[in-house]
Write a structure and sequence with these properties.
Blueprint (H helix, E strand, L loop, with lengths): L2 E4 L2 E9 L3 H12 L4 E4 L8 H4 L20 H6 L9 H14 L6 E2 L4 E7 L4 E6 L4 E9 L21 E4 L15 E5 L3 H13 L2 E6 L5 E3 L7 H9 L1 H10 L18 H14 L15 H18 L3 H6 L12 E3 L2 H4 L5 E5 L5 E4 L3 E4 L3 E3 L2 E4 L8 H4 L2 E3 L6 H4 L20 E3 L12 H21 L2 E6 L1 H16 L29 H13 L5 E5 L4
Parallel strand pairs: 2-3, 2-7, 3-4, 5-18, 7-19, 8-17, 9-10, 9-17, 10-13, 11-12
Antiparallel strand pairs: 1-2, 5-6, 6-7, 14-15, 15-16, 20-21
Helix pairs in contact: 1-14, 14-16
Protein backbone atom coordinates (compact mmCIF):
# COMPACT_ATOMS: atom_id res chain seq x y z
CA UNK A 1 0.00 0.00 0.00
CA UNK A 2 0.99 3.62 -0.44
CA UNK A 3 3.56 5.37 1.72
CA UNK A 4 5.57 7.88 -0.27
CA UNK A 5 6.98 11.37 -0.03
CA UNK A 6 6.46 13.88 -2.81
CA UNK A 7 7.34 17.58 -2.68
CA UNK A 8 8.21 17.13 0.99
CA UNK A 9 4.66 15.91 1.74
CA UNK A 10 4.47 12.38 3.12
CA UNK A 11 1.66 10.31 1.61
CA UNK A 12 -0.19 7.61 3.52
CA UNK A 13 -3.16 5.40 2.97
CA UNK A 14 -4.64 6.55 6.27
CA UNK A 15 -4.09 9.21 8.91
CA UNK A 16 -5.52 8.59 12.38
CA UNK A 17 -6.00 11.31 15.00
CA UNK A 18 -5.26 10.28 18.60
CA UNK A 19 -3.40 7.43 20.31
CA UNK A 20 -5.95 6.31 22.86
CA UNK A 21 -8.07 3.15 22.76
CA UNK A 22 -9.42 4.14 19.32
CA UNK A 23 -6.20 5.18 17.61
CA UNK A 24 -4.13 2.25 18.84
CA UNK A 25 -6.56 -0.38 17.60
CA UNK A 26 -7.22 1.48 14.33
CA UNK A 27 -3.49 1.57 13.65
CA UNK A 28 -3.16 -2.12 14.44
CA UNK A 29 -6.04 -3.16 12.17
CA UNK A 30 -4.99 -1.07 9.18
CA UNK A 31 -1.35 -1.97 9.48
CA UNK A 32 -2.20 -5.69 9.68
CA UNK A 33 -4.23 -5.27 6.49
CA UNK A 34 -1.25 -3.72 4.72
CA UNK A 35 -2.28 -0.06 4.71
CA UNK A 36 0.37 2.58 5.41
CA UNK A 37 -0.91 4.41 8.47
CA UNK A 38 0.32 7.23 10.66
CA UNK A 39 -1.18 8.27 13.99
CA UNK A 40 -0.76 11.81 15.27
CA UNK A 41 -1.02 12.40 19.00
CA UNK A 42 -0.83 15.71 20.90
CA UNK A 43 0.54 14.09 24.06
CA UNK A 44 3.99 12.72 24.72
CA UNK A 45 2.69 9.17 25.02
CA UNK A 46 -0.21 6.84 24.30
CA UNK A 47 -3.34 6.74 26.42
CA UNK A 48 -5.78 9.33 25.12
CA UNK A 49 -8.11 10.42 27.92
CA UNK A 50 -6.11 8.28 30.36
CA UNK A 51 -2.94 10.17 29.45
CA UNK A 52 -4.47 13.54 30.33
CA UNK A 53 -6.82 12.73 33.21
CA UNK A 54 -4.39 12.19 36.10
CA UNK A 55 -6.34 14.02 38.78
CA UNK A 56 -6.51 12.55 42.31
CA UNK A 57 -9.01 9.70 42.45
CA UNK A 58 -9.26 9.22 38.67
CA UNK A 59 -10.49 5.73 37.87
CA UNK A 60 -12.73 3.91 35.42
CA UNK A 61 -16.43 3.35 36.16
CA UNK A 62 -16.65 0.23 33.99
CA UNK A 63 -15.41 -2.99 35.55
CA UNK A 64 -11.83 -3.60 34.49
CA UNK A 65 -12.36 -7.13 33.15
CA UNK A 66 -14.74 -5.57 30.60
CA UNK A 67 -12.85 -2.32 30.07
CA UNK A 68 -10.23 -3.63 27.70
CA UNK A 69 -9.69 -4.86 24.18
CA UNK A 70 -11.20 -8.17 23.15
CA UNK A 71 -9.80 -8.37 19.60
CA UNK A 72 -6.94 -10.54 20.86
CA UNK A 73 -7.53 -13.46 23.22
CA UNK A 74 -3.79 -13.66 23.77
CA UNK A 75 -3.69 -10.03 24.90
CA UNK A 76 -6.71 -10.55 27.16
CA UNK A 77 -5.05 -13.48 28.89
CA UNK A 78 -1.63 -11.86 29.22
CA UNK A 79 -2.89 -8.82 31.11
CA UNK A 80 -4.23 -9.08 34.67
CA UNK A 81 -6.16 -6.26 36.33
CA UNK A 82 -5.61 -5.74 40.04
CA UNK A 83 -9.05 -4.50 41.08
CA UNK A 84 -12.67 -4.14 40.05
CA UNK A 85 -12.40 -0.48 39.05
CA UNK A 86 -8.87 0.37 37.90
CA UNK A 87 -7.20 3.68 38.67
CA UNK A 88 -5.81 5.89 35.92
CA UNK A 89 -2.15 4.76 36.29
CA UNK A 90 -3.14 1.11 35.80
CA UNK A 91 -5.21 1.85 32.68
CA UNK A 92 -2.33 3.89 31.27
CA UNK A 93 0.06 1.00 31.95
CA UNK A 94 -2.35 -1.29 30.10
CA UNK A 95 -2.42 0.92 27.01
CA UNK A 96 1.37 1.19 27.04
CA UNK A 97 1.52 -2.60 27.33
CA UNK A 98 -0.68 -2.86 24.22
CA UNK A 99 1.45 -0.35 22.30
CA UNK A 100 4.59 -2.32 23.15
CA UNK A 101 3.13 -5.77 22.51
CA UNK A 102 2.07 -4.86 18.98
CA UNK A 103 5.04 -2.51 18.32
CA UNK A 104 2.76 0.41 17.51
CA UNK A 105 4.98 3.34 18.55
CA UNK A 106 7.05 3.57 15.33
CA UNK A 107 3.89 4.59 13.45
CA UNK A 108 2.79 7.20 16.02
CA UNK A 109 4.06 10.78 15.93
CA UNK A 110 3.76 12.27 19.42
CA UNK A 111 3.75 15.93 20.47
CA UNK A 112 1.93 16.76 17.25
CA UNK A 113 -1.40 18.48 16.76
CA UNK A 114 -3.38 18.31 13.54
CA UNK A 115 -4.39 21.89 12.89
CA UNK A 116 -6.41 21.26 9.74
CA UNK A 117 -7.57 18.48 7.45
CA UNK A 118 -8.89 19.62 4.06
CA UNK A 119 -10.32 17.36 1.38
CA UNK A 120 -8.85 17.94 -2.09
CA UNK A 121 -11.55 17.00 -4.60
CA UNK A 122 -9.16 17.17 -7.55
CA UNK A 123 -7.19 14.17 -6.31
CA UNK A 124 -9.61 12.68 -3.76
CA UNK A 125 -7.15 12.96 -0.88
CA UNK A 126 -7.02 14.61 2.51
CA UNK A 127 -4.36 17.29 2.94
CA UNK A 128 -3.44 17.50 6.59
CA UNK A 129 -1.47 20.33 8.17
CA UNK A 130 0.41 19.90 11.44
CA UNK A 131 1.40 22.35 14.15
CA UNK A 132 5.09 21.99 13.30
CA UNK A 133 4.47 23.55 9.89
CA UNK A 134 4.65 20.31 7.92
CA UNK A 135 1.92 18.57 5.96
CA UNK A 136 0.91 15.01 5.11
CA UNK A 137 -1.55 13.57 2.64
CA UNK A 138 -3.85 10.56 3.02
CA UNK A 139 -6.61 8.78 1.18
CA UNK A 140 -8.50 8.18 4.42
CA UNK A 141 -8.84 10.51 7.38
CA UNK A 142 -9.95 8.82 10.61
CA UNK A 143 -10.67 10.60 13.88
CA UNK A 144 -10.11 8.84 17.19
CA UNK A 145 -10.22 12.01 19.26
CA UNK A 146 -12.52 10.66 21.95
CA UNK A 147 -15.85 12.04 23.09
CA UNK A 148 -14.45 13.73 26.20
CA UNK A 149 -11.07 15.15 25.25
CA UNK A 150 -11.88 18.85 24.93
CA UNK A 151 -11.59 20.25 28.45
CA UNK A 152 -14.14 22.90 29.38
CA UNK A 153 -12.79 25.82 31.38
CA UNK A 154 -15.60 28.35 31.85
CA UNK A 155 -14.68 31.97 31.26
CA UNK A 156 -14.47 33.03 34.90
CA UNK A 157 -13.81 36.70 35.36
CA UNK A 158 -10.49 37.44 37.07
CA UNK A 159 -8.83 34.04 36.75
CA UNK A 160 -5.67 35.71 35.49
CA UNK A 161 -5.43 37.63 38.79
CA UNK A 162 -5.45 34.55 41.05
CA UNK A 163 -2.14 34.35 42.93
CA UNK A 164 -2.47 30.70 43.88
CA UNK A 165 -2.30 27.59 41.71
CA UNK A 166 -5.17 26.29 39.61
CA UNK A 167 -5.69 23.04 37.70
CA UNK A 168 -8.28 21.41 35.43
CA UNK A 169 -9.00 17.73 36.08
CA UNK A 170 -8.74 17.01 32.35
CA UNK A 171 -5.31 18.64 32.02
CA UNK A 172 -3.59 17.53 35.19
CA UNK A 173 0.20 18.02 35.54
CA UNK A 174 2.18 15.01 34.36
CA UNK A 175 5.59 16.00 35.64
CA UNK A 176 4.84 16.67 39.30
CA UNK A 177 2.61 15.60 42.17
CA UNK A 178 0.40 18.49 43.25
CA UNK A 179 0.84 19.14 46.96
CA UNK A 180 -2.38 20.03 48.80
CA UNK A 181 -1.05 19.58 52.34
CA UNK A 182 -2.37 22.24 54.74
CA UNK A 183 -3.77 24.23 51.81
CA UNK A 184 -7.16 25.82 51.39
CA UNK A 185 -8.49 24.12 48.28
CA UNK A 186 -11.60 24.95 46.29
CA UNK A 187 -13.07 22.60 43.72
CA UNK A 188 -15.64 23.80 41.18
CA UNK A 189 -17.86 21.07 39.77
CA UNK A 190 -19.41 17.87 41.06
CA UNK A 191 -19.73 15.72 37.95
CA UNK A 192 -17.98 12.38 37.66
CA UNK A 193 -14.46 13.88 37.88
CA UNK A 194 -15.39 16.03 40.86
CA UNK A 195 -17.06 13.16 42.70
CA UNK A 196 -13.92 11.07 42.25
CA UNK A 197 -11.53 13.85 43.24
CA UNK A 198 -13.37 15.33 46.23
CA UNK A 199 -12.78 12.48 48.75
CA UNK A 200 -9.06 12.41 47.93
CA UNK A 201 -8.68 16.18 48.05
CA UNK A 202 -10.46 16.26 51.40
CA UNK A 203 -7.94 13.81 52.82
CA UNK A 204 -4.90 15.63 51.40
CA UNK A 205 -5.83 19.28 51.97
CA UNK A 206 -6.09 21.51 55.02
CA UNK A 207 -9.61 22.54 54.06
CA UNK A 208 -11.73 21.76 51.01
CA UNK A 209 -14.57 23.96 49.79
CA UNK A 210 -16.82 22.33 47.20
CA UNK A 211 -18.62 24.71 44.85
CA UNK A 212 -21.62 22.79 43.59
CA UNK A 213 -24.10 23.88 40.93
CA UNK A 214 -26.01 20.61 40.53
CA UNK A 215 -26.06 17.81 43.14
CA UNK A 216 -25.47 14.33 41.73
CA UNK A 217 -26.89 10.88 42.18
CA UNK A 218 -24.02 8.57 43.03
CA UNK A 219 -23.78 4.98 44.18
CA UNK A 220 -20.86 3.32 45.96
CA UNK A 221 -18.35 1.58 43.70
CA UNK A 222 -17.37 -1.03 46.30
CA UNK A 223 -14.02 -1.38 44.63
CA UNK A 224 -11.94 -4.36 45.76
CA UNK A 225 -8.91 -6.38 44.66
CA UNK A 226 -9.69 -9.27 42.36
CA UNK A 227 -9.48 -12.82 43.63
CA UNK A 228 -6.97 -14.82 41.49
CA UNK A 229 -9.52 -17.59 40.98
CA UNK A 230 -12.07 -15.10 39.68
CA UNK A 231 -9.50 -13.76 37.20
CA UNK A 232 -8.68 -17.31 36.08
CA UNK A 233 -12.35 -18.09 35.44
CA UNK A 234 -12.81 -14.83 33.57
CA UNK A 235 -9.91 -15.57 31.25
CA UNK A 236 -11.20 -19.09 30.65
CA UNK A 237 -14.60 -17.65 29.67
CA UNK A 238 -13.12 -15.00 27.37
CA UNK A 239 -15.05 -15.98 24.25
CA UNK A 240 -18.42 -16.13 25.97
CA UNK A 241 -17.82 -12.81 27.76
CA UNK A 242 -16.83 -11.18 24.47
CA UNK A 243 -19.95 -12.50 22.79
CA UNK A 244 -22.21 -11.25 25.58
CA UNK A 245 -20.62 -7.79 25.65
CA UNK A 246 -21.04 -7.32 21.91
CA UNK A 247 -24.70 -8.36 21.98
CA UNK A 248 -25.61 -6.42 25.10
CA UNK A 249 -27.30 -3.05 25.39
CA UNK A 250 -24.48 -1.24 27.21
CA UNK A 251 -21.42 -3.23 26.20
CA UNK A 252 -21.18 -5.23 29.43
CA UNK A 253 -22.45 -8.78 30.04
CA UNK A 254 -25.32 -7.66 32.25
CA UNK A 255 -28.54 -9.68 32.38
CA UNK A 256 -31.21 -7.23 31.18
CA UNK A 257 -34.11 -6.57 33.54
CA UNK A 258 -37.56 -7.90 32.66
CA UNK A 259 -39.80 -6.09 35.13
CA UNK A 260 -41.07 -2.56 35.57
CA UNK A 261 -40.24 -0.77 38.81
CA UNK A 262 -43.96 -0.14 39.15
CA UNK A 263 -45.19 -3.72 38.86
CA UNK A 264 -43.47 -4.94 42.03
CA UNK A 265 -44.28 -4.16 45.64
CA UNK A 266 -42.46 -1.34 47.44
CA UNK A 267 -40.82 -3.97 49.66
CA UNK A 268 -39.53 -5.93 46.67
CA UNK A 269 -38.27 -2.76 44.99
CA UNK A 270 -36.47 -1.70 48.17
CA UNK A 271 -34.82 -5.12 48.39
CA UNK A 272 -33.58 -4.92 44.76
CA UNK A 273 -32.23 -1.40 45.21
CA UNK A 274 -30.56 -2.27 48.49
CA UNK A 275 -28.86 -5.29 46.96
CA UNK A 276 -27.59 -3.14 44.09
CA UNK A 277 -26.35 -0.51 46.56
CA UNK A 278 -24.48 -3.09 48.61
CA UNK A 279 -22.99 -4.79 45.57
CA UNK A 280 -21.78 -1.45 44.24
CA UNK A 281 -21.38 -0.23 40.70
CA UNK A 282 -24.08 0.75 38.24
CA UNK A 283 -26.65 -1.88 39.22
CA UNK A 284 -29.29 0.70 40.13
CA UNK A 285 -29.25 2.01 36.56
CA UNK A 286 -30.29 -1.37 35.16
CA UNK A 287 -32.48 -2.60 38.02
CA UNK A 288 -35.75 -2.28 36.06
CA UNK A 289 -36.68 -1.88 32.41
CA UNK A 290 -38.34 1.52 32.78
CA UNK A 291 -35.89 3.51 34.91
CA UNK A 292 -34.99 5.83 32.04
CA UNK A 293 -38.34 5.92 30.23
CA UNK A 294 -40.99 6.32 32.93
CA UNK A 295 -41.05 9.28 35.32
CA UNK A 296 -42.77 7.41 38.14
CA UNK A 297 -40.37 4.46 37.86
CA UNK A 298 -37.41 6.83 37.80
CA UNK A 299 -38.61 8.57 40.93
CA UNK A 300 -38.49 5.30 42.89
CA UNK A 301 -34.74 4.94 42.44
CA UNK A 302 -34.15 8.69 42.75
CA UNK A 303 -35.92 8.73 46.13
CA UNK A 304 -33.95 5.65 47.22
CA UNK A 305 -30.67 7.47 46.62
CA UNK A 306 -31.90 10.68 48.25
CA UNK A 307 -32.84 8.66 51.33
CA UNK A 308 -29.33 7.19 51.38
CA UNK A 309 -27.84 10.67 51.22
CA UNK A 310 -29.98 11.71 54.20
CA UNK A 311 -28.81 8.67 56.14
CA UNK A 312 -25.12 9.14 55.34
CA UNK A 313 -24.64 12.91 55.63
CA UNK A 314 -24.97 13.95 59.26
CA UNK A 315 -25.66 17.66 58.74
CA UNK A 316 -29.31 17.95 57.58
CA UNK A 317 -28.74 21.24 55.74
CA UNK A 318 -25.75 19.86 53.87
CA UNK A 319 -27.64 16.65 53.08
CA UNK A 320 -30.46 18.70 51.61
CA UNK A 321 -28.01 20.57 49.35
CA UNK A 322 -26.64 17.25 48.11
CA UNK A 323 -30.00 15.81 47.08
CA UNK A 324 -30.63 15.89 43.31
CA UNK A 325 -34.03 16.46 41.76
CA UNK A 326 -33.41 15.70 38.07
CA UNK A 327 -34.26 12.32 36.56
CA UNK A 328 -31.80 9.71 37.78
CA UNK A 329 -29.48 8.38 35.07
CA UNK A 330 -30.14 11.20 32.59
CA UNK A 331 -26.86 12.80 33.56
CA UNK A 332 -23.87 10.47 33.58
CA UNK A 333 -24.47 7.78 36.25
CA UNK A 334 -21.75 8.12 38.86
CA UNK A 335 -20.14 5.65 41.23
CA UNK A 336 -17.89 6.74 44.06
CA UNK A 337 -15.67 5.85 46.97
CA UNK A 338 -16.87 7.59 50.16
CA UNK A 339 -18.24 10.64 48.32
CA UNK A 340 -21.20 11.45 50.56
CA UNK A 341 -19.26 10.38 53.66
CA UNK A 342 -16.67 13.04 52.84
CA UNK A 343 -19.16 15.77 53.75
CA UNK A 344 -19.05 14.57 57.37
CA UNK A 345 -15.43 15.71 57.63
CA UNK A 346 -14.78 18.89 59.63
CA UNK A 347 -12.45 20.22 56.90
CA UNK A 348 -15.08 20.11 54.12
CA UNK A 349 -17.54 22.89 53.24
CA UNK A 350 -20.25 22.93 50.56
CA UNK A 351 -21.34 26.03 48.66
CA UNK A 352 -24.45 26.05 46.49
CA UNK A 353 -23.46 28.19 43.50
CA UNK A 354 -26.86 27.86 41.89
CA UNK A 355 -28.21 29.82 44.84
CA UNK A 356 -25.15 32.06 45.12
CA UNK A 357 -23.41 32.10 41.69
CA UNK A 358 -19.69 32.66 41.28
CA UNK A 359 -19.06 36.30 40.42
CA UNK A 360 -15.31 36.24 39.89
CA UNK A 361 -11.98 34.71 40.75
CA UNK A 362 -10.02 37.15 42.92
CA UNK A 363 -6.32 37.40 43.64
CA UNK A 364 -6.95 35.63 46.96
CA UNK A 365 -9.62 33.14 45.96
CA UNK A 366 -13.20 33.20 44.78
CA UNK A 367 -16.21 35.46 45.29
CA UNK A 368 -19.87 34.50 44.99
CA UNK A 369 -22.88 36.77 45.27
CA UNK A 370 -22.98 36.01 48.99
CA UNK A 371 -19.40 35.59 50.23
CA UNK A 372 -15.69 35.57 49.44
CA UNK A 373 -13.55 32.46 49.93
CA UNK A 374 -9.79 32.66 50.42
CA UNK A 375 -8.10 29.79 48.59
CA UNK A 376 -4.55 28.62 47.92
CA UNK A 377 -5.53 26.26 45.11
CA UNK A 378 -8.51 25.99 42.77
CA UNK A 379 -9.42 22.76 40.96
CA UNK A 380 -11.76 23.04 37.99
CA UNK A 381 -13.78 19.84 37.62
CA UNK A 382 -15.90 21.56 34.99
CA UNK A 383 -15.99 18.74 32.48
CA UNK A 384 -15.67 18.75 28.72
CA UNK A 385 -17.15 20.06 25.51
CA UNK A 386 -18.43 16.58 24.74
CA UNK A 387 -19.19 14.72 21.53
CA UNK A 388 -18.79 17.46 18.89
CA UNK A 389 -16.27 19.61 20.78
CA UNK A 390 -13.09 17.62 20.05
CA UNK A 391 -13.96 17.36 16.34
CA UNK A 392 -14.84 21.03 15.91
CA UNK A 393 -11.52 22.07 17.47
CA UNK A 394 -9.85 20.80 14.28
CA UNK A 395 -10.33 22.74 11.04
CA UNK A 396 -11.90 19.87 9.07
CA UNK A 397 -13.15 20.82 5.60
CA UNK A 398 -14.86 18.55 3.10
CA UNK A 399 -16.22 19.23 -0.38
CA UNK A 400 -16.32 22.81 -1.61
CA UNK A 401 -14.30 23.85 1.45
CA UNK A 402 -17.26 23.48 3.81
CA UNK A 403 -16.07 22.96 7.39
CA UNK A 404 -17.49 20.33 9.69
CA UNK A 405 -18.34 23.11 12.14
CA UNK A 406 -20.33 24.90 9.41
CA UNK A 407 -22.08 21.69 8.38
CA UNK A 408 -23.11 21.04 11.95
CA UNK A 409 -23.91 24.73 12.48
CA UNK A 410 -21.78 24.78 15.61
CA UNK A 411 -23.71 21.82 16.98
CA UNK A 412 -27.22 23.06 16.21
CA UNK A 413 -27.58 20.75 13.19
CA UNK A 414 -25.34 17.82 14.09
CA UNK A 415 -26.18 15.04 11.67
CA UNK A 416 -24.08 11.97 10.89
CA UNK A 417 -24.59 8.60 9.31
CA UNK A 418 -24.21 5.96 12.03
CA UNK A 419 -21.92 8.29 13.97
CA UNK A 420 -19.22 7.13 11.54
CA UNK A 421 -19.52 9.29 8.42
CA UNK A 422 -20.70 12.68 7.17
CA UNK A 423 -22.27 13.70 3.88
CA UNK A 424 -19.88 16.03 2.08
CA UNK A 425 -16.80 14.51 3.71
CA UNK A 426 -15.61 11.60 1.52
CA UNK A 427 -13.24 9.00 2.95
CA UNK A 428 -13.53 10.45 6.45
CA UNK A 429 -14.48 8.16 9.31
CA UNK A 430 -15.21 8.98 12.95
CA UNK A 431 -14.63 6.43 15.72
CA UNK A 432 -17.50 6.74 18.25
CA UNK A 433 -18.68 9.99 16.71
CA UNK A 434 -21.94 11.81 17.49
CA UNK A 435 -25.09 9.68 17.08
CA UNK A 436 -23.40 6.39 17.95
CA UNK A 437 -23.71 4.56 21.32
CA UNK A 438 -20.33 5.97 22.46
CA UNK A 439 -20.40 7.38 26.01
CA UNK A 440 -23.58 5.54 27.00
CA UNK A 441 -21.82 2.24 26.44
CA UNK A 442 -18.68 0.47 27.58
CA UNK A 443 -16.34 2.49 25.38
CA UNK A 444 -13.77 -0.18 24.38
CA UNK A 445 -16.59 -2.37 23.03
CA UNK A 446 -18.01 0.44 20.91
CA UNK A 447 -14.52 1.48 19.81
CA UNK A 448 -13.69 -2.04 18.66
CA UNK A 449 -16.94 -2.28 16.72
CA UNK A 450 -16.26 0.99 14.88
CA UNK A 451 -12.62 0.20 14.20
CA UNK A 452 -13.49 -3.20 12.77
CA UNK A 453 -16.33 -1.77 10.65
CA UNK A 454 -14.08 0.99 9.28
CA UNK A 455 -11.17 -1.39 8.58
CA UNK A 456 -13.47 -3.86 6.83
CA UNK A 457 -14.96 -1.01 4.80
CA UNK A 458 -11.55 0.24 3.65
CA UNK A 459 -10.53 -3.30 2.67
CA UNK A 460 -13.78 -3.63 0.70
CA UNK A 461 -13.10 -0.36 -1.11
CA UNK A 462 -9.58 -1.42 -1.97
CA UNK A 463 -10.56 -4.87 -3.25
CA UNK A 464 -13.33 -3.42 -5.42
CA UNK A 465 -11.32 -0.50 -6.83
CA UNK A 466 -13.59 2.04 -5.17
CA UNK A 467 -11.90 5.40 -4.78
CA UNK A 468 -14.29 7.24 -2.47
CA UNK A 469 -17.08 6.52 -0.02
CA UNK A 470 -19.40 9.22 1.23
CA UNK A 471 -22.59 9.17 3.26
CA UNK A 472 -25.70 10.16 1.33
CA UNK A 473 -27.63 13.16 2.62
CA UNK A 474 -30.90 11.24 2.79
CA UNK A 475 -29.28 8.38 4.74
CA UNK A 476 -27.74 10.86 7.16
CA UNK A 477 -31.06 12.64 7.69
CA UNK A 478 -32.89 9.34 8.24
CA UNK A 479 -30.32 8.14 10.78
CA UNK A 480 -30.38 11.42 12.69
CA UNK A 481 -34.17 11.35 12.77
CA UNK A 482 -34.08 7.77 14.08
CA UNK A 483 -31.60 8.78 16.81
CA UNK A 484 -33.83 11.68 17.88
CA UNK A 485 -36.96 9.52 17.91
CA UNK A 486 -35.27 6.91 20.11
CA UNK A 487 -33.97 9.59 22.46
CA UNK A 488 -37.31 11.40 22.70
CA UNK A 489 -38.93 8.17 23.93
CA UNK A 490 -36.72 8.40 27.05
CA UNK A 491 -36.14 10.83 29.91
CA UNK A 492 -32.64 11.73 28.70
CA UNK A 493 -33.80 14.68 26.61
CA UNK A 494 -35.73 16.14 29.55
CA UNK A 495 -32.57 16.89 31.53
CA UNK A 496 -29.89 19.48 30.82
CA UNK A 497 -26.51 17.77 30.88
CA UNK A 498 -23.24 17.57 29.00
CA UNK A 499 -24.99 14.91 26.91
CA UNK A 500 -27.08 17.77 25.48
CA UNK A 501 -24.29 20.38 25.52
CA UNK A 502 -25.88 22.30 28.40
CA UNK A 503 -22.54 22.61 30.23
CA UNK A 504 -21.04 24.77 27.47
CA UNK A 505 -22.14 28.40 27.42
CA UNK A 506 -23.70 29.26 24.07
CA UNK A 507 -23.58 25.71 22.70
CA UNK A 508 -26.79 24.62 20.93
CA UNK A 509 -28.73 21.90 22.74
CA UNK A 510 -29.08 18.49 21.19
CA UNK A 511 -28.90 14.87 22.27
CA UNK A 512 -26.15 13.26 20.18
CA UNK A 513 -25.99 9.68 21.44
CA UNK A 514 -27.71 6.63 19.97
CA UNK A 515 -29.80 5.01 22.70
CA UNK A 516 -30.88 1.87 20.85
CA UNK A 517 -28.16 -0.22 22.48
CA UNK A 518 -24.79 -1.62 21.48
CA UNK A 519 -26.09 -4.94 20.16
CA UNK A 520 -28.88 -3.39 18.09
CA UNK A 521 -26.53 -0.76 16.71
CA UNK A 522 -23.98 -3.42 15.71
CA UNK A 523 -26.68 -5.34 13.83
CA UNK A 524 -27.70 -2.20 11.92
CA UNK A 525 -24.10 -1.41 10.95
CA UNK A 526 -23.45 -4.99 9.85
CA UNK A 527 -26.63 -5.03 7.79
CA UNK A 528 -25.62 -1.82 6.01
CA UNK A 529 -22.19 -3.27 5.20
CA UNK A 530 -23.72 -6.54 3.99
CA UNK A 531 -25.86 -4.59 1.51
CA UNK A 532 -22.79 -3.08 -0.13
CA UNK A 533 -22.68 -0.11 2.23
CA UNK A 534 -26.24 0.97 1.81
CA UNK A 535 -26.72 4.69 2.34
CA UNK A 536 -23.26 5.50 1.02
CA UNK A 537 -22.23 6.82 -2.38
CA UNK A 538 -19.34 4.75 -3.77
CA UNK A 539 -17.24 6.06 -6.66
CA UNK A 540 -14.89 3.65 -8.40
CA UNK A 541 -11.46 4.60 -9.72
CA UNK A 542 -12.58 3.86 -13.28
CA UNK A 543 -15.37 6.45 -13.05
CA UNK A 544 -13.21 9.30 -11.80
Amino acid sequence: MESTQQNHVANFDAIVVGAGFSGLYMLYRLREAGFSTRVFEVGEGVGGTWYWNRYPGARCDSESIYYNYTFSEELYKEWTWTSRYPEQPEILRYLNFVADKFALRPDIQFNTRIQSAHYDESINRWQIHLNDGTSVSAKYFITGVGCLSSANLPNFKGLENFRGEWYHTGQWPRDKKVDFKDKRVGIIGTGSSGVQAIPVLAQESGHLTVFQRTPQYSAPARNHPYDPEYIRQTKENFREIKKQMRKSSGGQPVIPPEKSALEVSPEERQRVYQEAWEKGGLGLFSAYIDITINEAANETVAEFIRTKIGEIVQNPDMAEKLMPTYYYGTKRPIIDTSYYETYNRENVSLVDVRKAPIVEITDKGLRTTEAEYELDTIVFATGYDGMTGPLMKIDIRGKKGVSLKEKWDGGAQTRTYLGIANAGFPNMFMITGPESPSVLSNMPVSIEQHVEWIADCIEYLCKNDIDTIEAKVEAEEAWSLHCREVAEATLFTKTESWYTGANIQGKPRGFQIYLGGVGTYREKCDEIAAKGYEGFSLLSTALR
